[in-house]
Design goal:
Distance between the termini: 29 Å
Number of strands: 40
Strand order of the largest sheet: 26-25-27-24-28-29-23-30
Number of helices: 38
Largest sheet: 8 strands, parallel
Shape: globular
């Protein structure tokens, strides 16, 4: 940011600063406007200066490499910026192959691009154009790199007349990160627009709230002083932005207000949370000026929390801490440190290192074997750590590498890991602004003097070591590298502090007479992997894959993936049990923010009543509490007379969840008056794992022969009799020609597979029913499989109707009654065990993978249609593949994806279509069928969906443009177009799961639209009614609030309101999407859920002619912390662009 003669020129880095910290960006501008009144900046970071020098050397290496390749090079030099700009333009006009340090300008931005590379294409210069390359020391691309590159691309377009379609990062290891510009450019454009608006309206007296920035750049000390000076509520430990908003709305704007208020409750906050926040604020106030903070041990009521979670001492206890680098792809846990006591009761330290991803597996294995051996000697031994990071890392690496599963299961089920953060947070109130161990340790030890001061310092220091080590300037052990030694010293300090915290807590436990309430009885887990037949087969195949990798990498990949799929369902079940275990160890207050649990429920006055063989009990809960409905729940903290946890069933038919009432069904165990519910999410996978085992055994013996599943796993071109391999499978000029080509391909499948990708409204069900009808006409036996009975029955019903229309005599069976139409069409509803005996020529059977994986269904079918294949795991496809000769995969991986719980090695956890397409948005013409015409969306809606999701390959049928909503002649408001995408900006702050501000706007919009004249595709017209709208929100709390608000309008109880999941497969003339969150990073399930590309695709593409998005526009300015997040927010930014 430079000011010259009153005009300010910005650099690309000014944008990235604004993205990560509006406060730091404001301070940079303030420094230009008031240089004489500037607060003191933080000390200059010597490490960053050093990295900058390394960066210059990296650029020189790349430049020499271009010269070695024989490219013409021109380095831009000049005494003024104007001369450098002119020299850059001259070099481009001369067609120089590589331009170094090119001066690019597009007011008010300017900067120097590391490299411009000449590539083929059309531009103002002729038959060539330039693209931007930037050099970075990092080993992986980062969001800030791509924002800077988009800014350079924008400036380059102003010069050459065309936006470069890709931007390139040359990484520190020499690898190229090649990125599509459009995947990030809309985010950049929106960020630039907001940034310039803020700069235009800059006011030296309007400093932004520092608490709203994730970091403070070079002004950290000043920002902290401001927050203390303002007595800001963010100073209260563990308070959230949402809680601050609710306190502010109640007139509590400072810590002093919170302490002195006579309020007992605040709307939107439970009484217990409000009380805890007040107690926390008071304790922090009492600690000001004290070297040792004030604290209070919370009373113990016999429940399993607080100091009651601290086990007795064992001589073999371990005090554990991990140092990790989030900057590596997938993260790298590089140092596993452990304090322990030797036989002479002397404190010792043991460390395990993994300095790159290749060492991580062995490091993890060594650590687990070491602690498991100690626990085997003394089952009362425990592993103490502070926070969830360590146990999450163990779970992640166990899944990633498929090792130590038995040992980790034993340690977890026997509660050997003890999270001291849970003990502290629920056991005492501490007068510190944070409950990090660095703050808690002020109770029992002096302040630290290690060179590495905190976790953030350790991340930067490790990256610094990587850079220096790659240049031969640092050793690869802590004995030969000062940086690694400093990191080790920091880790030792953390481990020792953890041990000292345990000692301090035990003293408090003893003084307050609190007994340990945790697990004491040993729980034996299933037999060890070493004697498991499935694991033996897995290990044989993994060894075989290593041998195959040199000569047959494709075959090795199949072998490896099949090996890991043997344990797919076991790995999937682990996180379910881990989550249950974690939840049952939490208290009501913690579970209040868990979207799947229901906390603080109270029995109503209604007496228990009979429901068949059980009793029903009615409860009341706060309907503003977000939760996902399940069928079965555990009651937190309750055990029956047999010592088993109490389980209850939710009786949905007698519940009124919208108004905060539900009924629980229980047989023997009477639930208490006050309860918190934890969902039982486990679903038994049998017989699917056994079917996978059967297929993989046949693969090992090489007895599968020519079969569909091997073609699929090898990503082979589908084997179609009479079709030239490699040519387009479908390439007709009309829909009829395309349909006939698909029929021909399906009927000529030769024990192979065919994927049919169906974007929204492209007629996937129509194609499916037509294909199955043709196969039945030929006497084939057909199966329809999906994750959902509703989805597969929809296709089954459509096929049955088509058969009746075409006079094709066929028999139909399904295994769940989802519609009265089933009986009307004489479709048999049976059970999975009835399927095999029903199969006959000219029949269709429909069920889930649990039915088709049965042994008696093996080789029963000619064709198996897998509907919604994007949601079906490859492992399940392997299991059900043995039931049929040919597989037809119907679906779209760009819509709702596979629900996945576990972490899986290689590609064993992928969904069917994700595995096949490998991150490509559309399938190739020689590999399958892409249905490239939508018969649902008006072209003004589809234009966005096609470009943002389907690589601009999806077009609208001409009939869709007849779908319009007439604009009244006397109307002058914002809904002034008859079709398209509309964005309504509603600024708000502190909303996480619901926004009353957006609800007000949604109600106003629907009132403006009801009664308008809608014209359908066939030319018919009608006045818009409630049936013509879908109201969509990401969270159930907003769904409930929207339902209540709309119900207050005439006939508004008919409004169709739900989450994205409810509406997949549905459509309406108008879709209204309320995003409801103020800050994506503060929203439940995080940025990745709110901006999930698939979910946004499904939400918008339900619309036939109008898609209306109501959201906080500042969501588009969400800081993207990595490249994946940048791409996700980019789609939302693109949505804003289309609506403008």
């Amino acid at each position: 940011m430079i000011k010259n003669r009153g005009a300010i020129t910005y650099s690309p880095s000014d944008l990235t600063m604004y993205m990560s910290s509006p406060f730091a960006s404001w301070m940079a501008r303030y420094a230009l406007e008031r240089p004489d009144n500037l607060p003191e900046k933080d000390e200059q970071d010597a490490l960053m200066d050093l990295l900058q020098q390394r960066g210059y050397r990296h650029e020189e290496v790349i430049e020499r490499q271009f010269i070695a390749e024989g490219k013409t090079i021109r380095k831009i030099i000049g005494t003024t910026q104007e001369k450098k700009r002119e020299s850059t333009l001259k070099a481009m006009q001369d067609g120089v192959e590589v331009i170094v340090q090119a001066r690019l300008e597009k007011a008010p931005f300017a900067g120097y691009a590391d490299f411009l590379l000449k590539v083929p294409g059309t531009s103002l210069f002729g038959d060539y154009r330039y693209e931007v390359w930037d050099s970075k020391l990092s080993k992986s691309s980062k969001a800030s790199f791509l924002i800077q590159l988009c800014c350079y691309a924008d400036m380059l377009e102003a010069i050459q007349g065309v936006l470069p379609p890709q931007v390139v990062v040359v990484l520190g290891n020499g690898d190229l990160s090649i990125n599509r510009t459009s995947d990030f450019y809309y985010y950049y454009q929106n960020l630039k627009k907001i940034f310039l608006e803020e700069q235009k309206g800059f006011d030296v007296s309007s400093m932004p709230d520092p608490s709203q920035s994730k970091n403070w750049g070079s002004w950290r000390d000043f920002a902290q002083e401001l927050l203390i000076e303002r007595d800001h509520l963010s100073q209260v430990a563990a308070i959230t932005q949402s809680q601050i908003k609710k306190l502010n709305q109640a007139g509590l704007v400072s810590v002093r207000d919170l302490i002195e208020t006579d309020k007992n409750r605040v709307p939107g906050l439970s009484a217990s949370i409000f009380s805890r926040l007040r107690a926390q604020a008071k304790m922090q106030a009492a600690s000001r000026g004290l070297d040792i903070p004030a604290y209070e041990i919370l009373p113990h009521n016999g429940d399993k929390k607080g100091l009651a979670l601290l086990p007795p001492h064992s001589a073999l206890d371990v005090f554990f801490d991990i140092e990790g680098s989030p900057l590596e792809e997938g993260g790298l846990e590089y140092l596993w440190g452990n304090s322990y006591f030797d036989d002479d009761s002397e404190r010792q330290f043991k460390d395990f290192w993994a300095l790159d991803s290749t060492e991580e597996k062995q490091c993890f294995r060594n650590f687990i074997h070491w602690v498991f051996e100690r626990w085997s000697r003394d089952p009362q031994m425990h592993i103490y750590h502070y926070g969830h990071y360590e146990i999450a890392a163990c779970r992640k690496l166990m899944g990633r590498y498929g090792v130590c599963e038995y040992e980790v299961d034993q340690l977890l089920r026997n509660e050997v890991f003890v999270d001291l953060y849970k003990v502290v947070k629920s056991g005492l109130i501490l007068g510190e602004p944070s409950y990090s161990i660095k703050n808690v340790e002020h109770l029992y030890r002096p302040r630290r003097d290690t060179l590495v001061g905190n976790g953030g310092d350790s991340v930067v220091a490790f990256e610094h070591w990587q850079e220096r080590h790659s240049q031969g300037l640092e050793g690869s052990t802590w004995e030969t590298s000062k940086i690694l030694k400093d990191l080790r010293d920091y880790n030792i300090d953390d481990c020792h502090s953890t041990q000292e915290l345990v000692e301090w807590l035990r003293r408090q436990q003893e003084q307050h007479g609190i007994l340990y309430e945790g697990k004491t009885d040993l729980v034996e887990v299933e037999s060890s992997d070493e004697i498991n037949e499935r694991t033996k087969l897995r290990d044989r195949l993994l060894a075989r894959a290593e041998i195959e990798r040199q000569q047959n990498p494709s075959g090795a990949s199949i072998t490896e993936n099949l090996a890991w799929m043997l344990e797919f369902h076991r790995r999937e079940s682990k996180p379910v049990f881990w989550k249950l275990f974690d939840r049952l160890g939490q208290d009501e207050q913690e579970l209040l923010d868990d979207l799947d649990c229901l906390a603080y429920c109270q029995r109503t006055e209604r007496a228990p009543f009979r429901i068949k063989q059980s009793l029903g009990y009615e409860y009341r809960f706060d309907p503003s509490q977000e939760f996902k409905v399940a069928s079965s729940y555990y009651v937190l903290g309750e055990e029956n007379s047999s010592g088993k946890r109490v389980k209850v069933t939710l009786e949905k038919s007698q519940s009124d969840l919208t108004n905060g009432l539900f009924v629980l069904k229980a047989k023997k165990d009477v639930p208490p008056d006050f309860i918190t519910l934890v969902p039982d999410e486990y679903v038994r996978p049998d017989p699917i794992p056994e079917a996978i085992f059967d297929v993989v055994k046949a693969y090992e013996k090489n007895t599968l022969g020519k079969c569909a599943i091997l073609d699929f796993l090898g990503r082979n071109i589908p084997r179609i009799r009479g079709h030239a391999s490699g040519s387009a499978i479908v390439e007709g000029k009309t829909p009829r020609e395309n349909l006939q080509a698909i029929v021909q391909a399906i009927t000529a499948l030769d024990s192979s597979y065919l994927p049919i990708q169906g974007p929204p409204g492209s007629g996937k069900t129509y194609i499916g029913k037509y294909l199955i009808t043709e196969l039945l006409r030929q006497g084939k036996r057909v199966g329809i499989c999906s994750n959902s009975h509703q989805a597969l029955n929809n296709l089954l019903l459509a096929t049955s109707k088509q058969c009746k229309h075409d006079s094709v005599d066929a028999q139909f069976m399904c295994t769940k009654n989802t519609s009265a139409e089933l009986e009307a069409l004489d479709i048999v509803v049976g059970k999975n065990q009835d399927l095999a005996s029903f199969v006959q020529d000219r029949c269709v059977v429909g069920t889930t993978a649990w039915g088709f994986a049965r042994n008696d269904m093996a080789k029963k079918l000619d064709y198996l249609f897998v509907d919604e294949a994007g949601q079906v795991s490859v492992a399940n496809l392997v299991a059900i593949s043995r039931s049929a000769d040919n597989l037809v995969l119907l679906g779209d991986q760009m819509q709702l994806g596979q629900p996945i719980q576990g972490s899986h090695p290689a590609e064993s956890g992928a969904s069917t279509l994700d595995y096949l397409l490998q991150d490509r948005a559309t399938i190739g013409k020689d590999r399958g069928v892409f249905l490239d015409v939508t018969y649902r969306m008006h072209s003004s809606v589809n234009a966005f969906i096609s470009e943002a999701v389907y690589e601009s390959k999806l077009s609208s049928d001409s009939s869709t443009d007849y779908q319009v909503v007439a604009v009244p002649s006397n109307y002058s408001g914002p809904l002034n177009k008859d079709s398209g995408i509309f964005f309504f900006a509603v600024e708000h702050h502190g909303n996480a799961q619901a926004s009353d501000e957006e609800i007000v706007v949604v109600v106003e919009l629907v009132q403006q639209l009801l009664g308008r004249l809608f014209t359908a595709k066939d030319g018919s017209q009608r006045s818009l009614d409630w049936e013509d709208f879908l109201f969509v929100a990401p969270y159930n709390l907003q769904v409930n609030k929207l339902s209540q608000a709309l119900a207050r309008l005439p006939s508004g109880e008919r409004a169709k309101v739900g989450s994205v999941d409810r509406f997949q497969g549905q459509e309406a003339p108008i879709v209204i999407l309320s995003m409801c969150a103020s800050d994506a990073n503060e929203s439940p399930r995080g940025l990745g859920f709110l901006f999930d590309k698939n979910r946004l695709n499904v939400a918008i593409s339900r619309a036939q002619c109008m898609a209306i998005v109501v959201a906080n526009p500042k969501l588009a300015n969400t800081e993207a912390r990595n490249v994946k997040e940048l791409g996700q927010v980019n789609m939302f930014s693109q949505l804003l662009k289309y609506s403008s």
